[in-house]
């Protein structure tokens, strides 16, 4: 921002102050005193030098800034002492010599020509020898000409912008740190401003999208990485504060439980890559220290391979389950399987034939006891699911034994009067089913009709 030049520090106005106005009774001494009063009344540090480079005026504000009293410099050409450790020209000196072309030598990349005044230049620089830790100054130097246009000196005004510059540098460092964090993140990430234009587009996102950062930074075309046609990304909806419309664009979206104004979702992007990619993504609002919304950040993760592995595993599981179901249904021995909730998962054809109860009447229910008993009571499989092995003797006293010392399985023989017309003798075995982590997930019970064998044994005894 250009420093405003008021009439008070306009060198032409000061030059005119030296002239005796037509019809005015002011003497040159009175005009000089007026000019001196104006300069010394400046709240902005300032000094004036003559054509001989000697200091004519050194105001109080500059005394406070430089800690050099006016009496030490007025009448000397030692104005440089306030700003530099060794003698060198100030900008005002260069203008007095009429060698403005030498300004770049001393202030390369730090100066510009004033838009308000002719023969005036302004610059910003750090002065390490000013004060204890150095100060940042914005300064303006302008040539002073008399009423006949002759160069008679130069005025230089200075503004201490150390606090502002420190804040800017601190912000710049903070922004650089943020940029480094985003750029170095292994997760594809982009940041947009309140105008929806891309501010950051990190290397991971370049790799994922195959779009270099220079193509999107400064544009609002980040959608190109994910969609075939222009449409809002989640970050855009957050910048627009259209939070209620997010579910319309992204199914299965959820709000973060940890952060405000943060949403996450996942989905398939058919236009990303050759065959499309599965991505999870999180978008969050960015607010400044005053709480004002300034943009949004969106982070993405590619879980395509994991998704494919999961689908392959699911397909294998389905195939395995179908194979297991086919084998189970092909058993010549009646059998059923219950889950941890005691509900029937499988009820094979041999058991349908034995009990005369179709599988569809049993699957998903816990009514399997009806096939064997007149009133509700646990089957042996139920006792194993509940880990109530100690209760087996209560229900099958003198009729059971442990099937194998190392296995969670028991067998028993009993007569079931409710089964068939005259009842049936069954030998049955129940065993625990555990998953590959060792967690109990259910139990299987197999049954064998030994009625004929029992009748033959009874006849032989008789």
Describe this structure in words.
The protein is built from 17 helices and 18 strands. The chain has helices at residues 11-18, 28-40, 60-66, 70-73, 91-96, 103-107, 162-184, 203-209, 213-216, 234-239, 246-249, 304-329, 349-355, 359-362, 380-385, 392-395, 451-461; strands at residues 46-50, 55-58, 111-113, 120-127, 135-145, 151-160, 189-193, 198-201, 254-255, 262-269, 277-287, 293-302, 335-339, 344-347, 400-402, 409-416, 424-434, 440-449. The chain has three domains: 7-160, Beta-Lactamase; 181-302, Beta-Lactamase, CATH 3.30.450; 333-461, Beta-Lactamase (2-Layer Sandwich). The longest helix is centred in the last third of the chain and has 26 residues, at 304-329. It is an alpha+beta fold and 462 residues long. Residues 1-24 have low confidence and may be disordered.
Task: Please describe the structure with a list of short key phrases separated by commas or semicolons.
single chain, alpha+beta, Beta-Lactamase, 3 domains, 6-stranded antiparallel beta sheet
Describe the largest sheet: 6 strands, antiparallel
From the N-terminal CA to the C-terminal CA, the straight-line distance is: 119 Å
Which percent band covers the strand fraction? 25-35%
CATH topology of the largest domain: Beta-Lactamase
What Rg do the Cα atoms give? 46 Å
Strand order of the largest sheet: 2-1-6-5-4-3
The chain-level structural class is: alpha+beta
Which CATH architecture of the largest domain?
2-Layer Sandwich
């Amino acid at each position: 921002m250009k420093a405003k030049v008021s009439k008070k520090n306009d060198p032409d106005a000061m030059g005119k102050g030296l002239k005796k106005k037509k019809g005015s009774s002011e003497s040159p001494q009175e005009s000089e005193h007026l000019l001196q009063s104006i300069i010394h009344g400046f709240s902005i540090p300032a000094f004036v030098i003559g054509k001989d480079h000697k200091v004519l005026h050194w105001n109080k504000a500059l005394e406070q800034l430089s800690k050099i009293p006016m009496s030490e410099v007025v009448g000397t050409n030692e104005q440089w002492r306030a700003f530099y450790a060794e003698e060198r020209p100030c900008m005002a000196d260069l203008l007095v010599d009429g060698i403005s072309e030498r300004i770049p030598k001393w202030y390369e990349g730090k100066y510009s020509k004033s838009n308000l005044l002719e023969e005036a230049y302004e610059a910003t620089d750090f002065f390490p020898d000013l004060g204890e830790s150095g100060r940042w100054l914005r300064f303006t130097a302008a040539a002073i000409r008399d009423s006949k246009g002759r160069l008679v000196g130069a005025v230089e005004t200075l503004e201490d912008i150390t606090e502002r510059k420190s804040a800017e540098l601190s912000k710049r460092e903070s922004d650089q740190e943020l940029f480094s964090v985003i750029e170095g993140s292994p997760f594809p990430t982009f940041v947009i401003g309140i105008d929806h234009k891309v501010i950051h587009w990190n290397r991971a996102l370049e790799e994922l999208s195959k779009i270099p950062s220079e193509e999107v930074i400064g544009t609002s075309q980040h959608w190109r990485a994910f969609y075939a046609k222009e449409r809002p990304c989640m970050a855009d909806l957050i910048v627009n504060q259209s939070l209620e419309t997010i579910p319309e664009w992204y199914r299965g979206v959820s709000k973060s439980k940890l952060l405000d104004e943060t949403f996450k979702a996942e989905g398939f992007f058919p236009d990303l890559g050759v065959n499309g990619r599965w991505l999870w993504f999180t978008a969050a609002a960015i607010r400044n220290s005053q709480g004002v919304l300034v943009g949004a950040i969106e982070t993405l993760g590619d879980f395509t391979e994991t998704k494919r592995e999961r689908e392959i595993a699911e397909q294998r599981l389905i195939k395995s389950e179908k194979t297991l179901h086919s084998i189970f249904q092909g058993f010549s021995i009646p059998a059923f399987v219950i889950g941890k909730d005691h509900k029937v998962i499988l009820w094979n054809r041999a058991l349908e034939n034995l009990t005369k109860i179709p599988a569809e009447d049993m699957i998903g229910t816990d009514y399997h006891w009806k096939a064997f008993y007149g009133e509700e009571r646990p089957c042996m499989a139920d006792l194993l699911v509940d880990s109530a092995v100690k209760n087996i003797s209560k229900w099958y006293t003198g009729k059971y034994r442990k099937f194998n010392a190392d296995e969670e399985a028991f067998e028993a023989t009993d007569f079931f009067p409710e089964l068939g017309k005259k009842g049936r003798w069954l030998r049955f075995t129940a065993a625990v089913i555990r998953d590959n982590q060792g967690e109990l997930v259910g139990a299987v019970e197999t049954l064998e009709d030994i009625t004929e064998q029992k009748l033959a044994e009874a006849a032989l005894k008789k």
